[in-house]
Specification:
The complex is a heterodimer.
Chain A lengths: L4 E5 L4 H12 L5 E4 L4 H11 L6 E4 L2 E4 L3 H8 L3
Chain B lengths: L1 E9 L1 H12 L4 E8 L8 E2 L8 E2 H13 L4 E4 L3 E7 L2 E6 L3 E9 L3 E3 L15 E2 L2 H4 L7 E5 L3 H11 L4 E5 L9 H9 L3 E4 L3 E7 L3 E7 L4 E5 L2 E4 L3 E3 L28 E3 L11 H21 L3
Parallel strand pairs in B: 1-2, 1-8, 2-5, 8-19, 10-17, 11-12, 11-17, 12-13
Antiparallel strand pairs in B: 3-4, 6-7, 7-8, 9-18, 14-15, 15-16
Helix pairs in contact in B: 1-2, 1-6, 4-5
The chains are: A alpha+beta, B alpha/beta.
Chain lengths: ~80, ~300
């Protein structure tokens, strides 16, 4: 079954753009959460990741901070 | 495998060098920590010829597309630890592998200078950030501090005007620097308090940033803030380049052909002592460095 992927990001952050690009290239569908527009989602992100930097990826409950390609690949089972 | 050219860095200088080298059919490889460099972190860009207006991430994406059009091996996420020229070859050691080439272009750019105060490392990404463009939106309605007094600090403060409830601009010199237009906007904004002659001495908090301790001319004080934006300038990423000559700021010295003091080793962009750090200048310097490397190869025996 496809994994549930959520990306918490801001429109201006280059690593967010790269992370989303990477998911698209690998045909992974994801929910794109813009934390600059949704302060509740921003709080949820801080709660989940214990920090305030974007992007944060939630892949089936596994929380990855930053565009960490290797960890993202692993969590998605792409390796 | 011995490459004709290794390029360290993929900002405007490194990418332009790669495009020029690819068009000259050189065997090349790009080793880089990230793509786009500081350009990717910039807000609005209105002085890159051909684009009246483009954002940093968009311009960086265009640069990357241009490079990817060629079949270039790009090692992204690799950090160079050491670089050395022995006889006719340059040896590049990264955190993942070792490479060899006949020529090298160092285009590793600059990074944010750190405050070096207690609490800075602990609270990085926990309220303390070096990228107002990226993380600014998370501080909606909050009290924040911007540290610095130059253009990048003013830019951060202006970006935060629409987001934060109140901004303290902590500047360690007697008055703000930067461009007059930006300075006036910041100085007249109601939600900004400028504190000149003031230094940050500690970042405080529990899980996240809660306050900063500052020291003015006469006294120390703690002000409650949830965000700290560090904008105190840049330092060159030149630590790994041991043999090359640098100036007092750590910038690599180059001549007008982008040659360093070591033959076959070139440098371009913000990591060099070339005056004026601009995207378009870095790109042009990258092109020059690549053409110089090409000429060097053409004239060398093998």
């Amino acid at each position: 079954m496809a994994k549930q992927v959520k990306v918490y990001s801001t429109p201006t952050c280059p690593y967010c753009i790269r992370a989303k690009q990477f998911l698209k290239e690998n045909n992974i569908s994801f929910e794109d959460v813009d934390v600059s527009l949704d302060s509740q989602a921003a709080e949820e992100m801080v709660e989940k990741s214990g920090q305030m930097g974007v992007p944060v990826l939630d892949i089936d409950g596994e929380i990855i901070v930053g565009f960490d390609k290797e960890r993202i690949k692993e969590a998605l089972g792409l390796v | 495998m011995i490459f004709d050219l290794i390029i360290i860095g993929a900002g405007p200088a490194g990418i332009t060098a790669a495009v020029y080298a690819a068009r000259k059919k050189m065997d090349l490889m790009v080793v880089t920590k990230d793509i786009g460099g500081q350009a990717a972190w910039s807000g609005d860009i209105e002085n890159y010829t051909g684009y009246q207006f483009i954002t940093g991430p968009d311009l960086a994406a265009k640069f990357e597309q241009h490079m990817r059009q060629f079949n270039i091996s790009v090692k992204e996420g690799e950090e160079v630890i050491e670089e050395e020229k022995i006889d006719d070859l340059v040896y590049v050691k990264t955190n993942k592998d070792n490479y060899q080439a006949k020529t090298l272009i160092i285009a590793s750019g600059k990074r944010s200078r750190e405050l070096n105060v207690p609490g800075e490392k602990e609270f990085k990404n926990k309220g303390l950030t070096y990228c107002a463009t990226c993380d600014g939106p998370l501080f909606l309605g909050k009290e924040v501090a911007v540290i610095g007094g130059g253009n990048s600090a003013l830019d951060a403060a202006l970006q935060l005007l629409k987001i934060a409830r109140h901004i303290y601009l902590i500047n360690n010199s007697p008055r703000l620097g930067g461009d007059a237009v930006m300075r006036e906007k910041v100085e007249t904004a109601k939600s900004v308090t400028v504190l000149n002659n003031t230094q940050v001495i500690e970042v405080l908090g529990k899980r996240m940033v809660e306050a900063i301790k500052i020291k003015g001319q006469y006294q120390e004080k703690t002000i409650p803030v949830e965000g700290v934006f560090v904008e105190i300038g840049l330092i060159p990423n030149s630590d790994f380049a041991q043999g090359v000559e640098k100036n007092q700021f750590g910038e690599i010295k180059v001549n007008c052909r982008n040659e360093t003091n070591i033959s076959g080793v070139f440098a371009a962009g913000d990591v060099t002592d070339v005056p004026e750090k601009q995207i378009i200048i870095a790109a042009g310097e990258g092109a020059k460095a690549s053409l110089s490397a090409f000429r060097y190869l053409a004239y060398s025996k093998t």
